[in-house]
Design goal:
Layout (H helix, E strand, L loop, with lengths): L10 E4 L5 H12 L3 E6 L3 H13 L4 E5 L5 H15 L4 E4 L14 H29 L2 E6 L3 H4 L5 H21 L3 E8 L9 H10 L8 H13 L7 E4 L6
Parallel strand pairs: 1-2, 1-4, 2-3, 4-5, 5-6, 6-7
Amino acid sequence: MSDQPKLQSRVALITGAGKRLGHAIALRLAREGAEIAVHYGHSVADAQGLVREIEQMGRRSVALPSELTSVPAVQKLVSEVVTHFGRLDILINTAATFLETKFGQTTEQSWDTSLDTNLKAPFFLSQAAAPHLASSGHGVIVNFADLGGIVGWREFLPHSLSKAGIIHMTRMLARELAPSIRVNAIAPGTITMPGDPPEWQAEFMRNAPLRRSGRPDEVTDAVMYLITAEFVTGHTLVVDGGRSL
């Protein structure tokens, strides 16, 4: 049996990779052999630190800024990735906003911020990346939804609508881009990380059947499954400890 890493020499673009889950996913994919394009919005120091971590593993990496709500900027980002690495095999759309916006308090600005970042950006990134993913022979897109897109959170109305859109967009793109590109999504529950308020975990423990919050490695395991599961497309994998039940 070969000891070669599962993602040896594949190139992944991960949006919002400077922090939190994006950071964890970037490190996991690098450990699995991938070369990583680290997208960031404003977290330049975090993104550059992540690149150094990845390079210390012997993988190539680059940090690239982009305003994802701009279609020309998104197209430029994909072009920069392909210019730097010569290919693109994996697109992970993790960048998102999480704005608390109730129905009566929703403004045009809060609506646009949620929908543009959480739904418009992944769509146009997928559109720009599709030709390169199709030619790679291993083309995969993994989108990030969350429980708001499944159960709907009244306090996060535009956010929930944007994530419901991600789930349906994933199904539509899976049909549109098959058979050369597989498209799936992950809907995490509460994933706690060092420094998170303890009340997040306490609230989740009260409502999830497994009585705990999730760990970043459980999400990165799910990402790896969707990248390597060659007979799975159009699926949203819920990683929530049973909370959506």
